[in-house]
Amino acid sequence: MNATLIDGKVFAASIREKVAAHVARLQAEHGLTPGLAVVLVGEDPASQVYVRNKGQQTKEVGMASFEHRLAAETSEADLLALIARLNADPSVHGILVQLPVPDHIDEAKVINAIAPEKDVDGFHISNVGLLATGQKSMVPCTPLGCLLMLRDTLGSLSGLNAVVVGRSNIVGKPMAQLLLKESCTVTVAHSRTRDLAGLCRSADILVAAVGRPQMIPGDWVKPGATVIDVGINRIPAPEKGEGKTRLVGDVDFAGAAEVAGAITPVPGGVGPMTIACLLANTVTACCRANDLPEPEGLTV
Ligand SMILES: NC(=O)C1=CN([C@@H]2O[C@H](COP(=O)(O)OP(=O)(O)OC[C@H]3O[C@@H](n4cnc5c(N)ncnc54)[C@H](OP(=O)(O)O)[C@@H]3O)[C@@H](O)[C@H]2O)C=CC1
Ligand SMILES: Nc1nc(=O)c2c([nH]1)NC[C@@H]1CN(c3ccc(C(=O)N[C@@H](CCC(=O)O)C(=O)O)cc3)C=[N+]21
């Protein structure tokens, strides 16, 4: 392996330390405890793991964690009523509804029912519009985590060619907005893109957010490029025993690490940063709600 490993676990721990310090100060000086409400509808096992990790880490940094686990058959009206209660609750500074929600619930309606200042995912149309026009907003956690790692690795991103593979509202599109804001020349690729290989080979920064295990081989990576692998894919791992699985990204890590200048692993890359940025956004939301100075270096 030639590339530098971008260690998301270590970076995320340093963010959590800063968050914890700010939380302690809010508590000591203002008697405030930032609170995060996480809503999970249904019983998707992967989602349950994330919700558990989020709840645990929220408490570890001294914030209040409110978990709402609703049955898969919960009606849209009941979910909207819960969101209205959380919007009105002054002890809740951040609200996250785990996606996807079951098919009978309109996802856009649910996201846009969250008070924008409590929308720590940054998915509300107000936050999307604010980010797109370069105004202060809540920044989506996964792209924020990716950007913090890119800045740490590269310093200035100005003028670099960035290719984002994937155009989802939760990763690809906001990632492209953040890179554009950093003055990268940004191309967003998707399932209809022609010559994806050639396009990827032009990237100084390659962000993969597709959801296809190891689809980007090493020979699509420009020598020296910085590769950010957002993908979280569970694949069979018979070498670990019958029925066992392991996590891999959207990039063939071993191949890409021979060519890239720096690369994030899966697990231990973007995932831990996403949760750390969620905590950071919650503290930021609490500060904004109380007209207090925000922690420095934890948003863009
Ligand atoms: N680490 C973390 O914190 C997080 C990780 N993830 C992971 O990131 C990955 C992407 O998530 P998400 O953005 O929600 O996924 P979506 O399924 O919403 O979007 C996937 C995107 O990839 C594109 N795509 C699909 N197949 C191809 C292909 N063959 N070639 C090029 N592009 C393709 C799709 O194109 P089209 O639009 O044309 O269909 C789409 O834009 C998943 O593995 C997910 O688990 C997600 C969120 C957070
Ligand atoms: N409203 C909403 N906001 C989200 O941010 C959101 C969501 N819904 N739905 C699902 C995706 C996925 N996601 C991850 C977060 C952390 C890890 C993570 O911590 N991963 C660890 C490994 C965890 C494990 O071992 O299973 C790692 O990559 O090292 C992964 C994935 C957030 N998402």
From TrEMBL:
Q: Please tell me the species this chain comes from.
A: Rhodovulum sulfidophilum
Q: Which Gene3D superfamilies match?
A: Leucine Dehydrogenase, chain A, domain 1 (3.40.50.10860), NAD(P)-binding Rossmann-like Domain (3.40.50.720)
> Residue limits of the Tetrahydrofolate dehydrogenase/cyclohydrolase NAD(P)-binding domain?
140-288
- Gene name of this polypeptide: folD
- Any idea what this protein is called? Bifunctional protein FolD
The pathway entry for this protein reads as:
One-carbon metabolism; tetrahydrofolate interconversion
Q: What does this protein do?
A: Catalyzes the oxidation of 5,10-methylenetetrahydrofolate to 5,10-methenyltetrahydrofolate and then the hydrolysis of 5,10-methenyltetrahydrofolate to 10-formyltetrahydrofolate.
A Pfam family of the record is THF_DHG_CYH
Residue span, Tetrahydrofolate dehydrogenase/cyclohydrolase catalytic domain: 6-121
Ranges annotated as spanning the membrane: none
Enumerate the catalysed reactions.
(6R)-5,10-methenyltetrahydrofolate + H2O = (6R)-10-formyltetrahydrofolate + H(+); (6R)-5,10-methylene-5,6,7,8-tetrahydrofolate + NADP(+) = (6R)-5,10-methenyltetrahydrofolate + NADPH
Q: Enumerate the CDD domains for this protein.
A: NAD_bind_m-THF_DH_Cyclohyd
